[in-house]
Amino acid sequence: xxxxxxxxxxxxxxxxxxxxxxxxxxxxxxxxxxxMFQPEALxxxxxxxxxxxxxxxxxxxxxxxxxxxxxVKAKASKPDEALAQLATAPTRVLLKRPxxxxxxxxxxxxxLFEKVAELRGGLNxxxxxxxxxxxxxxxxxxxxxxxxxxxxxxxFQIEGGKQYHVYPPCAVREDELEDxxxxxxxxIGQVDLATRDTRLEHVFELVPGSGFHQPxxxxxxxxxxxxxxxxxxxxxxxxxxxxRGRVLAANHYLRKIGVNPQPPGANPGTDSAKSSVxxxxxxxxxxxVRNLSRAG
Length: 296
Ligand SMILES: [Fe+2]
Hints:
This protein is an alpha+beta fold and 296 residues long. The protein contains eight helices and twelve strands.
């Protein structure tokens, strides 16, 4: 039985409302005490992933925080094999959507989502188009390189320590966001660390029982401490957060023809027109790129 949402997550409601989706802020939680996150339960969970490669990702540690995300090699090991080897080879294991494998994770995700939706003041008519969680298990002293994700994130440290370096979304330039959303991708925005304004950086020293909120498009890099680290996160997107991506993609084209476009949010009427056009353009462009890459 999972405790009530109020017992699971403690955060100052005023801090939540002010910072939501613009500024990273920390909170405390109870997840590390739940039986489902103890080592034997995690080993049993990892075993369930064996034949479904789309639902897990096993990779090496990055040599530096500034390494390009996809330059870090994926590993062929299955999640349960990788967990058994964590102490001998620097490894990161990502178990995607555990709520599809275990009813306890489904219940946890639903309770946490209900709580954060209430904290932001309700969804105000926005529809959730994706809601999912993930479990991350990493070796000691391993690095996840700098990137951003197009989703609203709540991150919970369960076991071991993690130093989480995160910038607010305003640290990513409009043109970088436009290039990313033009691709119509749903994961991993690549930006370089060296040109960020370090004054914007937040550093969270996460320990079991602490966590934080990471806004959509907030770039980050992560370093584990001196022992194995386990973290849990859940992310979501709404129709409004997806539409914002389409406005950014439209702005890419406007910039190309010499127009200096308004950022998303500046004019709701223009946003809605741009979003409707790109609903057609982005999938077509993806299809063209796919066909060209097959052809050549
Ligand atoms: Fe990330």
